[in-house]
Amino acid sequence: MGESPLMNATIADWGEHRLLAWLQTFSPAAVVGDDGAVLTPEPGRSLVITTDVLVAGVHFSDATTPPDAVGWRAMAANLSDLAAMGATPWAVTVGLSLPPHTKIAWIEALYGGMQRCLDRYGGAIVGGDVTRSPTPTIAITAFGQVAPAQVLRRREARVGDAIVVTGYHGSARAGLALLLGEIGRSDEGGNRWIAAHQYPQPRLDVLPELQKLTIGAKIAAMDSSDGLADAVVQLCRASGVGAVIEAAQIPIDPDLMAIIGPEQAGQWALYGGEDFELVLCLRPKVAAQFVEQLGPPAAIIGRITADPEVVIRAGHQTHSLDQAQGFQHFP
Amino acid sequence: MGESPLMNATIADWGEHRLLAWLQTFSPAAVVGDDGAVLTPEPGRSLVITTDVLVAGVHFSDATTPPDAVGWRAMAANLSDLAAMGATPWAVTVGLSLPPHTKIAWIEALYGGMQRCLDRYGGAIVGGDVTRSPTPTIAITAFGQVAPAQVLRRREARVGDAIVVTGYHGSARAGLALLLGEIGRSDEGGNRWIAAHQYPQPRLDVLPELQKLTIGAKIAAMDSSDGLADAVVQLCRASGVGAVIEAAQIPIDPDLMAIIGPEQAGQWALYGGEDFELVLCLRPKVAAQFVEQLGPPAAIIGRITADPEVVIRAGHQTHSLDQAQGFQHFP
Questions:
Q1: How many domains is chain B built from?
Q2: Above 0.85 for ipTM, yes or no?
Q3: Å between B258 CA and nearest CA of chain A
């Protein structure tokens, strides 16, 4: 990056035709050069389609996120939505809006991050658009494939289900706090949390094990990108049920707990957002098997109840979760 | 629109959850409420995927385009890309970025325009995202279905092909000129041209006839959204051929010709853009049949040549088309 003198050029220097031709080199040769990409899904598979829009100053900032990480995160967020539906990544489109003075090197790093994420988890960039805008904006639409019987949905939570999370919560928020200087740098955990914030890992890896344990069963799932609390609330709302969450069971990085204390760590775990873990509702026996297979920090953090409230229990105290307390993009 | 007092509310008043829940009422009930939409394509069909990003101040302006027309045009642009690939609209996602002070009524009108376009041409909004941004931006990804043998591609133009356009060129530019006050309002044509600019019609209607006449043949096609000249240049570049265009054969609304003169009308027809007609390269006999079936203003405007230049011939004069003269989003 930045080694070639060409890369100091801006979009305005290159013009749209050259930029588009160059961006197409990131896509498989077979799908570029037309008004759209042509793809043929595997027979008998359903498609899962998901869209995310990331805006500079709202979802990312040059102060906390290099363009490579912006690209990775943008892609990972979409692949995480596919994972939450049980689907395998297949194809993505990228709609970019950028100021004319944007350096080609910045775009190259952005695409590099997206590409590395796809190389790791599967899928290819099959199309896109690039246009002028005062506000850098990245709109990604991702397509996954899934056997119809293996689709995960929010509305399938049933009373008595155990609520499983696949990993630590609060780490991405801790990484952001470090980058913003809200907490001091420490040797313990710091790099891990920054990585959790900048290069989140969509939990596509857990799908084969899950599918093996749950053949024929309808499973409720969601990712925790908007916060763990929000995920539980959304699952409960979609399923017409409630939940009790045991705060002490929420997996939190012990180093984080040590540095900021359990109170703050619990808040970040519930409301920090962007952890991109899966939140699943499973019959208790299956949940135990699944958590054992994954190993820590995967954990059962609570259970689904008939009472349509979501309650957090911490020791002898309980409080009901305000259903509007999820992450709000419009403050 | 605007009749309900609720519609005077802004995004900031409503908050993200309520806004998303309301936007989901525009989608079929079966596909909403999860991290993604689940769709199952018809067996044996390929998918065509296309993305367009529209930015306020670049692609649309409240001065020339009411939100209903912004929605229609955004959708029509994507459906036109599907038509240019031979595909039938199936599903779309809508990624919206809007300032918090945006009125709900504006969004309702925008979605109303998108929905009317889909009602007319097929397809459903199956997902999306909405987020805060200082710059209103609409990113649409559209999916069409097509039999693999009926895919239209830019790279299939062959020497000797006739170049066919499905309708008038220059009318959308004339509509914009009227709205901007560049030309005076007149009884003749004005409303037609404003409609051509605000509510363009993707030429999905010509596909059945085209498919009937060209069974088993590989056809080059593109839409003229970035200008007729750009479309011919792109088709020639992708196919490694050239073209001669007869300026006098380009269909231009006679009323427009009368008002602004043939010189200006010819410029707008070639470079004005946003006419959303199809430009097709067909064997001469098939081209003649196709144009006869469609009737005027569909026309043969030139032919594909081995010499890799694109030449415009007007009377005894010819000039070679600068291959970079297409519509540039980054000036």
A1: 2
A2: yes
A3: 34
